[in-house]
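Example record for the data management plan.
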Amino acid sequence: MKLIIAVIQPEELPEIKEELLKRKIYKFTVTNAKGQGVEYPLQEVYRGVAHEIKLLNKVRLEIAVNDEFVDAVIESITTVAKKDGDKGRGKIFVLPIDECIRIRSGETGTKAIG
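Corresponding structural encoding:
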């Protein structure tokens, strides 16, 4: 069992979601995040005052899967997010899961993730 965490650009979420669903990966969590990568800080003017935005909007996608789905998840994300010559596409982290428990039924392990 693995936990895949991807930090991606917000505009890529709809396409990544479609790719995941095509590969029969239906369960995932999405949260808004702020972050700083290699991108240069943006300048924004609010009420006539210039502000430097150092933390940019990102999306954090968390997907817990059984081992046989890890490659499909990574392919779903990279198919959409990987663009030649484009910087700052995000990161994917793959972490082991020691245990998973479905609260409703008490199932554990690989049965609980599916």
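Summary line stored alongside the record: The two ends are 10 Å apart (CA to CA).
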